[in-house]
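Dear H.,

Thanks for agreeing to be a second pair of eyes. The structure we're designing against is below in token form, covering all 250 positions.
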């Protein structure tokens, strides 16, 4: 960060719902990791939120979801096969990806947030729970367990963050496993998530940019996965994406 920790603490205390020194320390470490990856040649892809369900926020004693980052180094094509060799506790999370069409600064009103959203699409995030799930600072400094992400196409008819009629269907090894007709039930409203990301980033000297995506949290309880499995996520009426897990190193 290009300012003192004291200045950062003052700014963070002004962000609604974020006045927690664990978050300040964790985000400073996390964004340092992001800068190192970008300096090494990765390109920014966007952001992620996690622990947004009320029970999760209560357990961690936080007021808003945690924010992490995505780079193109984590991006996989749909249908990819992933080796879980060396993973501690692998998890797949079917999510809605918000595709940003405009930059968004902190303090935006609802109309401005909606105007900045170009569309929505499906995403599957892969995470590895390799550190205590109750230590906010360590979770953040490890980029909230992020390992990979699969993205589907952006549905431009969902500009403004319209979720009406969206239904999520998850199949596991060819059989129906979970579904929801309320994709915001576990995550909170997408408009609020996007505003929260913009507010948080600006407090740490970053900006939510046009062309970036935000994956907004699992729309069903996260899936603990094993080698040999396949997960298919269909976001009706948008599109379908999938990922396989290898039975051996690839």
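And this is the sequence the design step returned. I haven't edited it by hand at all.
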């Amino acid at each position: 960060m290009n300012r003192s920790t004291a200045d950062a603490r003052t700014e963070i205390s002004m962000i609604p719902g974020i006045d927690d020194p664990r978050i300040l320390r964790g985000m400073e470490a996390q964004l340092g990791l992001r800068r190192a990856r970008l300096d090494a040649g990765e390109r920014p892809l966007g952001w992620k939120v996690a622990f947004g369900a009320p029970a999760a926020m209560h357990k961690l004693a936080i007021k808003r979801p945690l924010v992490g980052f995505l780079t193109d180094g984590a991006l996989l094509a749909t249908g990819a096969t992933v080796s879980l060799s060396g993973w501690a506790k692998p998890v797949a999370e079917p999510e809605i990806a918000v595709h940003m069409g405009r930059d968004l600064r902190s303090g935006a009103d609802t109309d401005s947030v909606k105007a900045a959203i170009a569309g929505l699409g499906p995403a599957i995030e892969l995470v590895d729970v390799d550190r205590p799930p109750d230590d906010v600072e360590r979770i953040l400094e490890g980029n909230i367990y992020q390992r990979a992400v699969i993205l589907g196409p952006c549905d431009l008819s969902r500009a403004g963050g319209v979720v009406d009629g969206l239904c999520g269907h998850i199949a596991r090894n060819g059989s129906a496993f979970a579904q929801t007709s309320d994709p915001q039930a576990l995550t909170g409203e997408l408009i609020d998530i996007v505003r929260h990301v913009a507010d948080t980033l600006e407090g740490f000297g970053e900006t939510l940019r046009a062309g970036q995506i935000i994956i907004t949290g699992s729309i069903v309880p996260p899936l603990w996965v094993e080698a040999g499995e396949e997960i298919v996520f269909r976001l009706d009426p948008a599109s379908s994406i999938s990922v396989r897990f290898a039975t051996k190193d690839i």
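Two observations from my side: Helices lie at 5-12, 21-39, 54-60, 110-116, 136-141, 190-203. Residues 43 and 72 are 5 Å apart (CA to CA).

Warmly,
E.
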